[in-house]
Amino acid sequence: MFPTRPSGARHRAIVLMVILGCQLMMTLDASIVTTALTHIKAELGFTDSSLSWIQNAYVLAFGGLLLLGARAGDLLGRRRVFIAGTVLFTAASLLAGLAPSAGLLIAARALQGLASAFAIPSTLALLITSFPEPEERTRAIAIYSAVIGAGASVGIIVGGVFTEYLSWRWGLLINVPLGVVILALSPRFLPETERQPGRVDMLGALTVTVGMSALVYGLVEAAEIGWASARTLLPLTAAVVLLAAFVLIELRATQPIVPIRLFASVQRSGAYVSRILIVGAMFSTFYFLSQYLQNVRGLSPLATGLVFIPLTGMFFAMVYVVRRATPMVSRSGLLLTSLATAGIGMAWLSRIDATTSVASILPPLLVLGVGQGIAIILLTDFGMAEVDPGDAGAASGLVNTAHQLGGSIGLALLTVVYGSAVHHDPAPDAVTQAHGFAAVFDVATGFYALAVVVALVVLVADRRRAGRPRPSAPVVAASR
Protein backbone atom coordinates (compact mmCIF):
# COMPACT_ATOMS: atom_id res chain seq x y z
CA MET A 1 0.00 0.00 0.00
CA PHE A 2 2.86 2.35 0.83
CA PRO A 3 6.03 2.17 -1.32
CA THR A 4 8.95 1.50 1.04
CA ARG A 5 10.70 -1.67 2.15
CA PRO A 6 8.38 -4.67 1.56
CA SER A 7 8.43 -5.89 5.16
CA GLY A 8 7.89 -2.35 6.48
CA ALA A 9 5.12 -1.71 3.96
CA ARG A 10 3.33 -4.91 4.94
CA HIS A 11 3.61 -4.07 8.62
CA ARG A 12 2.20 -0.56 8.12
CA ALA A 13 -0.58 -1.91 5.91
CA ILE A 14 -1.69 -4.18 8.75
CA VAL A 15 -1.46 -1.29 11.21
CA LEU A 16 -3.67 0.79 8.92
CA MET A 17 -6.12 -2.10 8.54
CA VAL A 18 -6.40 -2.54 12.32
CA ILE A 19 -6.86 1.16 13.01
CA LEU A 20 -9.36 1.72 10.20
CA GLY A 21 -11.21 -1.47 11.14
CA CYS A 22 -11.67 -0.19 14.67
CA GLN A 23 -12.57 3.33 13.53
CA LEU A 24 -15.11 2.08 10.99
CA MET A 25 -16.62 -0.47 13.39
CA MET A 26 -17.20 2.14 16.07
CA THR A 27 -18.22 4.98 13.75
CA LEU A 28 -20.80 3.01 11.81
CA ASP A 29 -22.31 1.66 15.02
CA ALA A 30 -23.79 5.11 15.57
CA SER A 31 -26.08 4.45 12.59
CA ILE A 32 -26.08 0.71 11.89
CA VAL A 33 -29.46 0.27 13.61
CA THR A 34 -31.03 3.22 11.74
CA THR A 35 -32.68 1.12 9.03
CA ALA A 36 -33.83 -1.36 11.71
CA LEU A 37 -35.56 1.15 14.00
CA THR A 38 -39.04 0.19 12.82
CA HIS A 39 -38.33 -3.48 13.55
CA ILE A 40 -36.70 -2.75 16.92
CA LYS A 41 -39.60 -0.51 17.94
CA ALA A 42 -42.12 -3.27 17.23
CA GLU A 43 -40.04 -6.05 18.82
CA LEU A 44 -38.96 -4.31 22.03
CA GLY A 45 -41.82 -1.83 22.58
CA PHE A 46 -40.15 1.56 22.15
CA THR A 47 -42.17 4.78 21.79
CA ASP A 48 -41.40 7.29 19.01
CA SER A 49 -39.39 9.51 21.35
CA SER A 50 -37.68 6.80 23.39
CA LEU A 51 -36.59 5.19 20.11
CA SER A 52 -34.06 7.99 19.65
CA TRP A 53 -32.22 6.76 22.75
CA ILE A 54 -30.96 3.78 20.75
CA GLN A 55 -28.88 6.36 18.89
CA ASN A 56 -28.41 8.89 21.68
CA ALA A 57 -27.23 6.42 24.34
CA TYR A 58 -24.34 5.47 22.07
CA VAL A 59 -23.47 8.88 20.67
CA LEU A 60 -23.83 10.71 23.98
CA ALA A 61 -21.59 8.33 25.93
CA PHE A 62 -19.15 8.37 23.01
CA GLY A 63 -18.99 12.16 22.74
CA GLY A 64 -19.26 12.94 26.44
CA LEU A 65 -16.33 10.71 27.43
CA LEU A 66 -14.02 11.28 24.45
CA LEU A 67 -11.98 13.90 26.27
CA LEU A 68 -11.51 11.58 29.23
CA GLY A 69 -10.56 8.76 26.86
CA ALA A 70 -7.96 10.93 25.15
CA ARG A 71 -6.44 11.89 28.50
CA ALA A 72 -6.38 8.25 29.63
CA GLY A 73 -4.39 7.35 26.52
CA ASP A 74 -1.83 10.04 27.34
CA LEU A 75 -1.38 8.78 30.89
CA LEU A 76 -1.62 5.01 30.42
CA GLY A 77 -0.35 4.42 26.87
CA ARG A 78 -2.35 4.59 23.66
CA ARG A 79 -2.15 0.91 22.69
CA ARG A 80 -3.14 -0.22 26.17
CA VAL A 81 -6.20 2.04 26.22
CA PHE A 82 -7.06 1.14 22.61
CA ILE A 83 -7.10 -2.58 23.46
CA ALA A 84 -9.10 -2.06 26.65
CA GLY A 85 -11.71 -0.03 24.76
CA THR A 86 -11.95 -2.64 22.02
CA VAL A 87 -12.42 -5.45 24.55
CA LEU A 88 -15.30 -3.57 26.21
CA PHE A 89 -16.83 -2.62 22.85
CA THR A 90 -16.81 -6.23 21.69
CA ALA A 91 -18.46 -7.43 24.89
CA ALA A 92 -21.06 -4.62 24.81
CA SER A 93 -21.87 -5.45 21.18
CA LEU A 94 -22.62 -9.04 22.18
CA LEU A 95 -24.89 -7.79 24.97
CA ALA A 96 -26.68 -5.36 22.62
CA GLY A 97 -27.19 -8.01 19.95
CA LEU A 98 -28.79 -10.38 22.45
CA ALA A 99 -30.75 -7.74 24.43
CA PRO A 100 -34.26 -9.00 25.29
CA SER A 101 -35.66 -5.61 26.35
CA ALA A 102 -35.55 -1.93 25.45
CA GLY A 103 -33.80 -0.97 28.70
CA LEU A 104 -31.03 -3.53 28.27
CA LEU A 105 -30.47 -2.51 24.66
CA ILE A 106 -30.08 1.15 25.65
CA ALA A 107 -27.69 0.19 28.49
CA ALA A 108 -25.59 -1.91 26.12
CA ARG A 109 -25.50 0.91 23.58
CA ALA A 110 -24.24 3.27 26.30
CA LEU A 111 -21.48 0.77 27.11
CA GLN A 112 -20.55 0.66 23.43
CA GLY A 113 -20.29 4.45 23.43
CA LEU A 114 -18.13 4.43 26.55
CA ALA A 115 -15.80 1.87 24.98
CA SER A 116 -15.55 3.88 21.75
CA ALA A 117 -14.68 7.01 23.72
CA PHE A 118 -11.56 5.30 25.04
CA ALA A 119 -10.53 3.42 21.89
CA ILE A 120 -11.08 6.06 19.19
CA PRO A 121 -8.82 8.87 20.55
CA SER A 122 -5.92 6.40 20.45
CA THR A 123 -6.39 5.53 16.78
CA LEU A 124 -5.14 8.85 15.44
CA ALA A 125 -2.09 8.93 17.71
CA LEU A 126 -1.22 5.33 16.80
CA LEU A 127 -1.68 6.10 13.12
CA ILE A 128 0.67 9.07 13.26
CA THR A 129 3.25 7.10 15.25
CA SER A 130 3.17 4.29 12.70
CA PHE A 131 3.53 6.58 9.66
CA PRO A 132 6.39 8.99 10.39
CA GLU A 133 7.06 9.89 6.74
CA PRO A 134 5.01 12.97 5.71
CA GLU A 135 3.80 11.56 2.37
CA GLU A 136 2.71 8.23 3.87
CA ARG A 137 1.14 9.98 6.82
CA THR A 138 -0.85 12.34 4.62
CA ARG A 139 -2.17 9.42 2.59
CA ALA A 140 -3.10 7.47 5.72
CA ILE A 141 -4.83 10.51 7.23
CA ALA A 142 -6.82 10.99 4.01
CA ILE A 143 -8.13 7.43 4.20
CA TYR A 144 -8.81 7.85 7.90
CA SER A 145 -10.81 11.04 7.22
CA ALA A 146 -12.88 9.27 4.58
CA VAL A 147 -13.80 6.55 7.06
CA ILE A 148 -14.91 9.13 9.63
CA GLY A 149 -16.97 11.03 7.06
CA ALA A 150 -18.64 8.01 5.49
CA GLY A 151 -18.93 5.74 8.53
CA ALA A 152 -22.49 6.70 9.42
CA SER A 153 -23.84 6.19 5.90
CA VAL A 154 -21.94 2.89 5.57
CA GLY A 155 -23.64 1.81 8.79
CA ILE A 156 -27.07 2.45 7.28
CA ILE A 157 -26.24 0.32 4.25
CA VAL A 158 -24.79 -2.56 6.28
CA GLY A 159 -27.64 -2.40 8.75
CA GLY A 160 -30.15 -2.58 5.91
CA VAL A 161 -28.56 -5.74 4.55
CA PHE A 162 -28.59 -7.51 7.91
CA THR A 163 -32.13 -6.41 8.77
CA GLU A 164 -33.43 -7.57 5.39
CA TYR A 165 -31.79 -10.99 5.24
CA LEU A 166 -31.01 -11.96 8.84
CA SER A 167 -32.01 -9.75 11.76
CA TRP A 168 -31.30 -6.26 13.06
CA ARG A 169 -29.38 -8.00 15.85
CA TRP A 170 -26.66 -9.08 13.42
CA GLY A 171 -25.79 -5.45 12.79
CA LEU A 172 -24.54 -5.45 16.38
CA LEU A 173 -23.31 -9.03 16.67
CA ILE A 174 -21.01 -8.65 13.62
CA ASN A 175 -18.78 -6.54 15.86
CA VAL A 176 -17.87 -9.59 17.91
CA PRO A 177 -15.77 -11.42 15.27
CA LEU A 178 -14.41 -8.11 13.99
CA GLY A 179 -13.39 -7.12 17.49
CA VAL A 180 -11.68 -10.48 18.04
CA VAL A 181 -9.60 -10.02 14.87
CA ILE A 182 -8.59 -6.49 15.89
CA LEU A 183 -7.64 -7.68 19.37
CA ALA A 184 -5.59 -10.56 17.94
CA LEU A 185 -3.54 -8.22 15.71
CA SER A 186 -3.18 -5.20 18.00
CA PRO A 187 -0.52 -6.44 20.49
CA ARG A 188 1.76 -7.58 17.66
CA PHE A 189 1.48 -4.71 15.20
CA LEU A 190 0.45 -1.55 17.06
CA PRO A 191 3.23 0.46 18.72
CA GLU A 192 2.89 1.57 22.32
CA THR A 193 3.28 5.26 23.17
CA GLU A 194 5.10 6.57 26.20
CA ARG A 195 3.09 7.30 29.31
CA GLN A 196 2.97 10.98 30.20
CA PRO A 197 3.09 12.17 33.80
CA GLY A 198 0.00 13.87 35.15
CA ARG A 199 -3.46 13.18 36.41
CA VAL A 200 -7.01 13.05 35.08
CA ASP A 201 -9.28 16.06 35.54
CA MET A 202 -12.10 13.88 36.87
CA LEU A 203 -14.25 16.79 38.07
CA GLY A 204 -14.12 18.39 34.64
CA ALA A 205 -14.86 15.09 32.91
CA LEU A 206 -17.80 14.44 35.25
CA THR A 207 -19.42 17.85 34.87
CA VAL A 208 -19.19 17.94 31.07
CA THR A 209 -20.47 14.37 30.67
CA VAL A 210 -23.39 14.73 33.09
CA GLY A 211 -24.14 18.22 31.78
CA MET A 212 -24.37 17.08 28.17
CA SER A 213 -26.39 14.03 29.20
CA ALA A 214 -28.85 16.26 31.06
CA LEU A 215 -29.16 18.53 28.04
CA VAL A 216 -29.99 15.70 25.66
CA TYR A 217 -32.32 14.04 28.18
CA GLY A 218 -34.22 17.30 28.61
CA LEU A 219 -34.60 17.72 24.86
CA VAL A 220 -35.83 14.13 24.45
CA GLU A 221 -38.36 14.69 27.23
CA ALA A 222 -39.50 17.90 25.51
CA ALA A 223 -40.28 15.83 22.43
CA GLU A 224 -42.24 13.35 24.56
CA ILE A 225 -44.19 15.55 27.02
CA GLY A 226 -43.55 19.20 26.08
CA TRP A 227 -41.44 22.09 27.37
CA ALA A 228 -43.49 22.98 30.46
CA SER A 229 -43.00 19.70 32.31
CA ALA A 230 -40.62 19.46 35.27
CA ARG A 231 -39.13 16.39 33.58
CA THR A 232 -38.00 18.74 30.81
CA LEU A 233 -37.13 21.90 32.74
CA LEU A 234 -35.13 20.30 35.56
CA PRO A 235 -32.59 18.47 33.38
CA LEU A 236 -32.23 21.49 31.08
CA THR A 237 -31.57 23.73 34.08
CA ALA A 238 -29.10 21.20 35.47
CA ALA A 239 -27.36 21.13 32.09
CA VAL A 240 -26.84 24.91 32.10
CA VAL A 241 -25.49 24.85 35.66
CA LEU A 242 -23.17 21.88 35.07
CA LEU A 243 -21.76 23.19 31.79
CA ALA A 244 -21.11 26.60 33.35
CA ALA A 245 -19.38 24.82 36.24
CA PHE A 246 -17.31 22.87 33.71
CA VAL A 247 -15.98 26.09 32.17
CA LEU A 248 -15.05 27.46 35.61
CA ILE A 249 -13.35 24.18 36.55
CA GLU A 250 -11.30 24.15 33.35
CA LEU A 251 -10.23 27.77 33.88
CA ARG A 252 -8.83 26.91 37.30
CA ALA A 253 -7.54 23.36 36.77
CA THR A 254 -3.77 22.88 36.65
CA GLN A 255 -4.16 20.03 34.13
CA PRO A 256 -7.57 20.68 32.50
CA ILE A 257 -9.18 18.05 30.34
CA VAL A 258 -9.92 20.89 27.86
CA PRO A 259 -7.44 23.78 27.86
CA ILE A 260 -9.65 26.86 27.46
CA ARG A 261 -6.88 28.50 25.43
CA LEU A 262 -7.87 26.25 22.52
CA PHE A 263 -10.97 28.42 22.08
CA ALA A 264 -8.92 31.60 21.73
CA SER A 265 -8.55 30.93 18.00
CA VAL A 266 -11.52 32.07 15.92
CA GLN A 267 -10.66 29.39 13.38
CA ARG A 268 -10.78 26.55 15.88
CA SER A 269 -13.84 27.78 17.77
CA GLY A 270 -15.69 28.34 14.50
CA ALA A 271 -14.71 24.87 13.33
CA TYR A 272 -16.11 23.28 16.50
CA VAL A 273 -19.39 25.19 16.28
CA SER A 274 -19.81 24.52 12.56
CA ARG A 275 -19.09 20.83 13.07
CA ILE A 276 -21.77 20.57 15.75
CA LEU A 277 -24.28 22.20 13.42
CA ILE A 278 -23.64 20.21 10.26
CA VAL A 279 -23.16 16.85 11.96
CA GLY A 280 -26.39 17.45 13.88
CA ALA A 281 -28.16 18.12 10.59
CA MET A 282 -26.65 15.14 8.76
CA PHE A 283 -26.99 12.60 11.55
CA SER A 284 -30.65 13.54 11.95
CA THR A 285 -31.10 13.18 8.19
CA PHE A 286 -29.91 9.59 8.38
CA TYR A 287 -32.32 8.90 11.24
CA PHE A 288 -35.44 10.56 9.83
CA LEU A 289 -34.94 9.87 6.12
CA SER A 290 -34.59 6.14 6.78
CA GLN A 291 -37.95 6.22 8.59
CA TYR A 292 -39.51 8.24 5.77
CA LEU A 293 -38.34 5.71 3.19
CA GLN A 294 -39.71 2.77 5.17
CA ASN A 295 -42.82 4.17 6.87
CA VAL A 296 -44.05 6.52 4.13
CA ARG A 297 -42.62 5.11 0.91
CA GLY A 298 -42.77 1.46 2.00
CA LEU A 299 -39.17 0.52 1.21
CA SER A 300 -37.54 -2.51 2.78
CA PRO A 301 -34.54 -2.06 5.12
CA LEU A 302 -32.22 -3.22 2.32
CA ALA A 303 -33.68 -0.82 -0.25
CA THR A 304 -33.47 1.97 2.31
CA GLY A 305 -29.78 1.27 2.85
CA LEU A 306 -29.14 1.24 -0.90
CA VAL A 307 -30.59 4.76 -1.23
CA PHE A 308 -27.65 6.03 0.84
CA ILE A 309 -24.96 4.54 -1.42
CA PRO A 310 -24.56 7.70 -3.60
CA LEU A 311 -24.17 9.79 -0.45
CA THR A 312 -21.49 7.41 0.86
CA GLY A 313 -19.66 7.51 -2.47
CA MET A 314 -19.59 11.31 -2.39
CA PHE A 315 -18.03 11.31 1.08
CA PHE A 316 -15.13 9.14 -0.07
CA ALA A 317 -14.71 11.02 -3.35
CA MET A 318 -14.49 14.41 -1.64
CA VAL A 319 -11.28 13.39 0.15
CA TYR A 320 -9.45 13.47 -3.16
CA VAL A 321 -11.26 16.61 -4.31
CA VAL A 322 -10.07 18.48 -1.23
CA ARG A 323 -6.49 17.27 -1.59
CA ARG A 324 -6.37 18.54 -5.18
CA ALA A 325 -8.31 21.78 -4.61
CA THR A 326 -6.72 23.19 -1.46
CA PRO A 327 -3.37 24.11 -3.05
CA MET A 328 -5.22 26.21 -5.63
CA VAL A 329 -8.05 27.88 -3.68
CA SER A 330 -8.63 29.42 -0.27
CA ARG A 331 -9.51 26.78 2.31
CA SER A 332 -11.93 29.10 4.11
CA GLY A 333 -13.55 30.04 0.81
CA LEU A 334 -13.90 26.37 -0.09
CA LEU A 335 -15.42 25.72 3.33
CA LEU A 336 -17.98 28.46 2.82
CA THR A 337 -18.89 27.09 -0.61
CA SER A 338 -19.20 23.53 0.69
CA LEU A 339 -21.50 24.56 3.55
CA ALA A 340 -23.70 26.54 1.17
CA THR A 341 -23.81 23.54 -1.19
CA ALA A 342 -24.85 21.21 1.61
CA GLY A 343 -27.51 23.72 2.68
CA ILE A 344 -28.92 23.76 -0.85
CA GLY A 345 -29.07 19.96 -0.82
CA MET A 346 -30.90 19.93 2.51
CA ALA A 347 -33.35 22.63 1.39
CA TRP A 348 -34.04 20.54 -1.72
CA LEU A 349 -34.62 17.46 0.41
CA SER A 350 -37.08 19.36 2.63
CA ARG A 351 -39.50 19.57 -0.33
CA ILE A 352 -40.52 15.94 0.15
CA ASP A 353 -44.12 14.90 0.73
CA ALA A 354 -46.00 11.61 0.92
CA THR A 355 -45.79 11.09 -2.85
CA THR A 356 -42.13 11.96 -3.49
CA SER A 357 -40.40 9.21 -5.46
CA VAL A 358 -37.12 7.65 -4.40
CA ALA A 359 -35.55 8.82 -7.67
CA SER A 360 -36.36 12.42 -6.70
CA ILE A 361 -34.52 11.99 -3.39
CA LEU A 362 -31.20 10.92 -4.92
CA PRO A 363 -30.18 14.30 -6.48
CA PRO A 364 -30.45 16.28 -3.22
CA LEU A 365 -28.54 13.49 -1.43
CA LEU A 366 -25.73 13.80 -3.98
CA VAL A 367 -25.56 17.57 -3.47
CA LEU A 368 -25.57 17.01 0.30
CA GLY A 369 -22.76 14.48 -0.02
CA VAL A 370 -20.55 16.87 -1.98
CA GLY A 371 -21.02 19.74 0.46
CA GLN A 372 -20.87 17.71 3.66
CA GLY A 373 -17.92 15.62 2.50
CA ILE A 374 -15.76 18.67 1.77
CA ALA A 375 -16.87 20.54 4.88
CA ILE A 376 -16.05 17.70 7.30
CA ILE A 377 -12.48 17.41 6.01
CA LEU A 378 -11.87 21.16 6.13
CA LEU A 379 -13.42 21.54 9.57
CA THR A 380 -11.05 18.86 10.85
CA ASP A 381 -8.17 20.90 9.46
CA PHE A 382 -9.45 24.16 10.96
CA GLY A 383 -10.12 22.44 14.28
CA MET A 384 -6.42 21.58 14.55
CA ALA A 385 -5.11 24.87 13.14
CA GLU A 386 -2.00 26.28 14.85
CA VAL A 387 -2.29 23.94 17.83
CA ASP A 388 0.81 23.58 19.99
CA PRO A 389 2.13 20.00 20.10
CA GLY A 390 1.33 19.78 23.80
CA ASP A 391 -2.34 20.57 23.12
CA ALA A 392 -2.72 18.29 20.09
CA GLY A 393 -4.44 15.50 22.02
CA ALA A 394 -6.97 17.86 23.61
CA ALA A 395 -7.67 19.58 20.28
CA SER A 396 -8.17 16.25 18.53
CA GLY A 397 -10.50 15.24 21.36
CA LEU A 398 -12.50 18.44 20.88
CA VAL A 399 -12.90 17.76 17.16
CA ASN A 400 -14.26 14.28 17.87
CA THR A 401 -16.39 15.50 20.77
CA ALA A 402 -18.00 18.19 18.60
CA HIS A 403 -18.72 15.50 15.99
CA GLN A 404 -20.41 13.08 18.38
CA LEU A 405 -22.25 15.63 20.50
CA GLY A 406 -23.41 17.43 17.38
CA GLY A 407 -25.12 14.24 16.28
CA SER A 408 -26.69 13.68 19.69
CA ILE A 409 -27.90 17.24 20.28
CA GLY A 410 -29.05 17.64 16.69
CA LEU A 411 -31.10 14.46 16.82
CA ALA A 412 -32.66 15.45 20.14
CA LEU A 413 -33.61 18.91 18.87
CA LEU A 414 -35.02 17.64 15.60
CA THR A 415 -36.99 14.96 17.42
CA VAL A 416 -38.72 17.87 19.17
CA VAL A 417 -39.40 19.45 15.78
CA TYR A 418 -40.86 16.23 14.41
CA GLY A 419 -43.07 15.71 17.47
CA SER A 420 -44.45 19.24 17.19
CA ALA A 421 -45.05 18.89 13.45
CA VAL A 422 -47.11 15.71 13.88
CA HIS A 423 -48.82 17.15 17.00
CA HIS A 424 -47.37 14.34 19.14
CA ASP A 425 -49.71 11.86 17.43
CA PRO A 426 -48.53 8.36 18.49
CA ALA A 427 -49.68 6.86 15.18
CA PRO A 428 -49.59 9.53 12.44
CA ASP A 429 -50.65 8.59 8.93
CA ALA A 430 -48.27 8.75 5.98
CA VAL A 431 -49.21 12.31 5.01
CA THR A 432 -48.70 13.59 8.56
CA GLN A 433 -45.39 11.75 8.89
CA ALA A 434 -44.15 13.21 5.62
CA HIS A 435 -45.09 16.69 6.86
CA GLY A 436 -43.09 16.01 10.04
CA PHE A 437 -40.04 14.83 8.11
CA ALA A 438 -40.18 17.87 5.82
CA ALA A 439 -40.30 20.13 8.89
CA VAL A 440 -37.21 18.39 10.27
CA PHE A 441 -35.28 18.96 7.04
CA ASP A 442 -36.41 22.60 6.98
CA VAL A 443 -34.87 23.18 10.41
CA ALA A 444 -31.77 21.18 9.41
CA THR A 445 -31.41 23.62 6.50
CA GLY A 446 -31.31 26.35 9.12
CA PHE A 447 -28.39 24.54 10.79
CA TYR A 448 -26.44 24.85 7.56
CA ALA A 449 -27.38 28.51 7.25
CA LEU A 450 -25.98 29.13 10.73
CA ALA A 451 -22.83 27.21 9.80
CA VAL A 452 -22.41 29.49 6.76
CA VAL A 453 -22.57 32.52 9.08
CA VAL A 454 -19.91 30.98 11.32
CA ALA A 455 -17.80 30.18 8.25
CA LEU A 456 -17.97 33.83 7.18
CA VAL A 457 -16.47 34.78 10.54
CA VAL A 458 -13.75 32.16 10.01
CA LEU A 459 -13.15 33.52 6.50
CA VAL A 460 -12.52 37.00 7.86
CA ALA A 461 -10.17 35.63 10.52
CA ASP A 462 -8.37 33.50 7.93
CA ARG A 463 -7.79 36.49 5.64
CA ARG A 464 -6.29 38.43 8.51
CA ARG A 465 -3.74 35.63 8.81
CA ALA A 466 -3.02 35.57 5.09
CA GLY A 467 0.49 36.85 5.59
CA ARG A 468 1.36 34.30 8.28
CA PRO A 469 2.98 30.96 7.33
CA ARG A 470 0.76 27.89 7.31
CA PRO A 471 1.57 24.20 7.35
CA SER A 472 1.20 22.58 3.93
CA ALA A 473 -0.72 19.65 5.45
CA PRO A 474 -3.32 19.52 8.22
CA VAL A 475 -1.67 20.12 11.58
CA VAL A 476 -3.29 16.97 12.89
CA ALA A 477 -1.05 14.94 10.64
CA ALA A 478 2.03 16.12 12.45
CA SER A 479 0.74 16.69 15.93
CA ARG A 480 2.29 13.79 17.76
TrEMBL record:
Superkingdom, taxonomy of origin: Bacteria
Record's GO cellular component terms: plasma membrane
Record membrane topology: Multi-pass membrane protein
GO molecular-function terms, A-Z: transmembrane transporter activity
Membrane-spanning segments: 12-33, 53-70, 82-104, 110-129, 141-162, 168-190, 202-220, 232-251, 272-290, 302-321, 333-349, 361-384, 405-424, 436-461
InterPro entries: EmrB-like, MFS, MFS_dom, MFS_trans_sf
Protein name (database record): MFS transporter
Organism: Nocardioides turkmenicus
